[in-house]
Amino acid sequence: MSPKKSKKSTDTVTITDNSTGKSIELPIRRGTEGPSVFDIGKLAQTLGLYTFDPGFRSTASCSSAITLIDGEGGRLTYRGYSIEELAENSTYLEVCYLLWYGDLPTKQQLQEFTRTITYHTMVHEGLRDFYKGFRRDAHPMAIMVGVVGALSAFYHDDIDFSEQHSRNIAAHRLISKMPTIAAWAYRYSQGEPFPYPRNDLTYAENFLHLMFSYPTEPYQVNPVAAKAMDLLFLLHADHGQNASASTIRLAGSSQANPFACVSASVGTLWGPAHGGANEAVISMLEAIGSVDRIDMFLERAKDKSDPFRLMGFGHRVYKAYDPRATLIRKVCNDVLRELEVDDPLFDIAQELEERALNDDYFKSRNLFPNVDFYSGIILRAIGIPTNMFTVIFTIGRTIGWISQWNEMMQDQGMRIGRPRQLYVGRQHCTYQPIDKRSNEETQSK
Ligand code: CMC
Questions:
Q1: 102-124 pLDDT tens trace
Q2: Which residue has the least CA distance to atom 30 on ligand 1?
Q3: Among residues 237, 192, 200, 246, which one has the least CA distance to residue 216?
Q4: Rounded to the nearest whole angstrom, what is the distance from the C-alpha of residue 281 to the centroid of ligand 1?
């Protein structure tokens, strides 16, 4: 099979199966920006052939109008607005509105939206009991998978998610309840009381109150910490068709309950190749321990026989500096200065970055710091324990997941996601009754 550009028109690609001589002309579809695609929808029915692309290295799984990543230019936009402008001028909730409804809110729309989110932060009392079933030393992401999934038992079958109104309510519930659920995962691990949300606080302030307040004394939110927290939520809000966003699209395509689908995305995010990298970066910096050991770890990252990778470095789409990392690095400096925190891991991280960016291995592969490289330093400075880092990512990314789900649900042509496979297994085996099977035979198969 040889894909080649058609001579007739630049807007098609012709695929010819050389074994049968059959051809198909496939339309090229161009987006408003970014790489074009050729639409293979009719390929199987015409040629009886499927495409093979594990890891989706050359495959667009959907069309989307939510987030643009310009990987070569190191640029990120939400609904057309640059991440830098949003970070400078907007709050996380304003960005949630933008992602969900498609445009920036007016003052009144933002007030109403903020009020809706603020007044739905409490969770069903029955949900509190779920926590008791977990071991105290469970990873908070494991608790998140369970408790977020359990929301589907509270908001379930009688809701028709094919209606936009029902989807709006589901979105409001998820955005508002996620900080409560997340903070309680931490409080449970500490054997501490679960505080109730406070409606007089902003989204980020309320999260810090849920994490750190005690019923025995008043809690003063540190404004520097709250501002940094809000920014981190905003910078993590969406990122196109990454693994956890693709998970919610696939799970949701079966028309399953959205709370169950979000829980599937939480599980996907947890992996160290995805959102779990922020936690892994801190473990790595701690393992490096001092600047004079950096070169040894760089050598390990370059050694193909060693599974170690530089965590918080590299990205499937960015072949330039991740713009979120640029913003986070700057805020990292500000937060440490304002909170008067001297974190030796920040020094190691900066030196590590400098050396990696001057190393041919990283240069030739376009490996730059990603969103996870510096975020953990900020979180440490405001007192967030390392095992909560990916949970923080989860809170911020919830709006992205449900916006991706909503966009898919609005698509009239939506079908259940169902990839094919290239079967490479055995064929036509002769069944042997159990007393006739030998160990060697079984193992050789
Ligand atoms: N350290 C050392 N080598 C690396 C790294 C790294 N962090 N990342 C990529 N490479 C090498 C890789 O070995 C390969 O080399 P070669 O061409 O010689 O075989 C080349 O760079 C291309 O890498 P890849 O694995 O084919 O790239 P990918 O697109 O499949 O993986 C990634 C992307 C993010 C999983 C990978 O860069 C990685 O494992 N990074 C560390 C984990 C991390 O920071 N993850 C967070 C991603 S950003 C947050 C999010 O959106 O989830």
A1: 999 999 999 999 999 999 999 99
A2: 316
A3: 192
A4: 13
Mean pLDDT of 129-142: 95
Residue 78 pLDDT exceeds 80: yes
According to DSSP, the β-strands at 2-5 and 23-29 are unpaired
**Number of CB atoms found within 10 A of residue 369's CB:** 27
Q: Report CA(314)–ligand 1 centroid distance (Å).
A: 5
Ligand 1 centroid – CA 243 distance (Å)? 14
Place of tokens 């975020």: 375
Please give the model's pTM, rounded to 2 decimal places.
0.94
Q: Residue 309: CB within 6 Å of ligand 1? A: yes
- Quote the pLDDT of residue 6: 42
Task: State whether the beta carbon of 273 lies less than 6 angstroms from ligand 1.
Answer: yes
Residue 364's contacts (CB-CB under 8 Å, 6 or more residues apart) are none
Atom of ligand 1 nearest to the CA of 275: 52
Q: Hey, which of 316, 368, 404 would you mutate to test ligand 1's pocket, going by the most ligand atoms within 8 Å of its Cβ?
A: 316
Whether 157 has a pLDDT exceeding 80, the answer reads no
Q: What percent of the chain has pLDDT over 70?
A: 96
Which residue minimizes the CA distance to atom 45 of ligand 1? 273
Any ligand 1 atom below 6 A from CB of 86: no
Residue 124 is a catalytic residue:
no
Which of 315, 343, 359, 428 is the catalytic position? Answer: 315
Look at residue 5 in the predicted model and tell me its pLDDT. 46
State in Å: Cα 308 to ligand 1 middle: 11
Q: What is the DSSP string of 190-220?
A: HT---PPP-TTS-HHHHHHHHHH-BTTB--P
Catalytic residue among 230, 238, 343, 372: 372
**Is 157 annotated as catalytic?**
no
How far, CA to CA in Å, does 380 sit from each of 19, 173, 336, 387, 413?
60, 28, 10, 11, 45
Task: Identify which of 99, 81, 69, 83 has the alpha carbon closest to the alpha carbon of residue 402.
Answer: 99
Residue with tokens 């490996």: 367
Buried b (16+ CB within 10 A) or exposed e, 428-440: eeeeeeeeeeeee
Query: pLDDT tens digit string along 215-256?
Result: 999 999 999 999 999 999 999 999 999 999 999 999 999 999
What does the mean pLDDT of the chain come to? 94
Give pLDDT tens digits for 11-39.
Answer: 999 999 999 999 999 999 999 999 999 99
The amino acid at residue 260 is A
